[in-house]
Amino acid sequence: MPNRLEKEDSPYLQQHKDNPVDWYPWCDEAFERAKKEHKAIFISIGYSSCHWCHVMEHEVFENEEIAAFLNEHIISIKVDREERPDIDKHYQEVHMLLNRRPGGWPTSIFATPENKPFYAATYIPPHNRDQMLGFSELIRIIAQKIAQNDPDLFKNADEIESFLKPAERPSQATVLKEEIVGTFVKQAEHNYEPAYGGFSEKPKFPQTSTLNTLLNIFLLNGSQKAKKIVENTLENMQLGGMYDLVEGGFCRYSVDEKWLVPHFEKMTYDNALLCELYLRASIHLKNESFLLTAKETADFMLSKMLQDDLFYSASDADTDGMEGKYFIYKADEVTQALKDGGFNVDEIEEILHSLQITPDGNFERQGIIRLASSKRPAWFEKVQNILRSLRESRSYPFIDKKVQVSWNAMMIKSLFMLAATDKKYLDQAKASLDTLLKTMLIGNTLYHSALIGKIPKVTAFLEDYAYLGTALIAAHQCSFDAKYLILAQQLADTALETFYENGRWYFSRGEFVTDADATDSTYPGAVGVIVDLLLSLGSLVDEKYRTYAFKTLEYNSFKMAKTPIYFPYLFNQSLRYIKEDHIVKSKDDNLRQNSITLAEISYPYLLLQPDETVDEFMICGINSCYANVKDAADVDNAIGHI
What we know:
By secondary structure, the protein is an alpha+beta fold. The protein is 48% helix and 13% strand. Among the domains are: 4-163, Glutaredoxin (3-Layer(aba) Sandwich), CATH 3.40.30; 327-391, no CATH class; 582-640. A hairpin with a 2-residue loop joins strand 18 (500-501) and strand 19. The model has no long low-confidence stretch (mean pLDDT 95).
């Protein structure tokens, strides 16, 4: 019989509706019952495409014996981190406080009947294993201690709660100077893995903010170190494995140093951010293979992850309980398909070798497709189509059809940026943005997420305002439609009123009051992105927004000056503040007709502003205009010699 989760919209909660665990969604009823019956609370947080969430569900939450004990002695609550990032953020802080290291998913929290947390972990095996306390053993200990009112447990819970109160304003600030660029590059070099690119040995995540900032540093001062890190990393990532050479799109991360073996889930935010990064790198590093990767990534999102002009959240790593099953190949099936496709024996041997397809395989005795070079062989496109056809008979991984404002905004921004070089993406970018606004901005209230076709319930967080605002700026920069700029300003004003306090930003100020992240984790923290929006508005609308940006940078300056590598997106905005935006003004038609040339301008902090009084191209700083050129091709040189 289904549990209470049956009535929830969240695909992740729906995955658990048939568990024998008597799950509650996050609700007052659960907490009231815990108090009334004096029972511990178990809070399990995850998301629908999380591999280890599936493992723990199968091993623990489908276990009848464990479920029976939970149901009798503990109140169990299931949370979708994508639906409620405020709850997730709060308990990630709990995990960090209790374990002195970042958490992950699934997140497993135990709390007192008053919901004061005292124990935090991620995946927990069903029984004691390899010096890990098992879930079955753990819940028995906790239930007993709560029933006995163990004084140490309740005292620890009270202390933990006091530590979780938002920190006071930093007592120190420092002046951020351009010299901090050297610190950032040195710290990036320290973390850089030169053999295959990326940062750290393994696992490897696509740290787009760091790479984007290094690309900007190269554009500003010609740093060959920064350029090398970006080029080598992007070239290795796109060779296949974490990047899906068959259908396009990036998986979440690589478990090895070569970017070969991924966790196979594909997240909208990764693909949106990598699409933008590869596009920018293709333009400024003159690399056509990067542009192909950007377009293939966008095309994957449009073909597999779009419905009614809105983008889904993620696709799963598993198919039929097996990780990567949809994506990998057996040598004999590929050999036969190539024969059927008209290739001879020698050609097949060459193709199998080039794609790293062997009888022994490179993952679970099967093959993950990967090339040795970014230069694709002449036969690649034909073979790519054959490999796609082999997937047609397979079940596609589960897709979480939840729409999130922040993640949709990331993808929409990338489409508008792509449209500057390929107009075929423009109509979809406009349609997706208009649909997102119509669906998630109801009256004057912005919402965070909803299933397609469902009414949204959770109001927006700072990241939704920030990312949607920057998408609107991108829309304005591509279409020059003033309505996008006006709405971006309205969102910024609401965000300032709701989440801002003397340089400090809150992620949420509802049920959970949580600080917004200035650091970047799975994707750029909301503080950096809101500063991005404020700086754009400060250049295009009203300089007062630069003041709010400055106060935010000042608030975070002391920590950022010491370890800028932890704040790559915000650090990039601090560099932008120091160097200042430059604005190219011209007639609307001039800007449209020269979109590709203007996109190729090497100065990274450039904005376009239509002005029907300007016949040529006027180049301005924040407070004055300093150059006028006849040809768009001369703008880059004029900026470079100010």
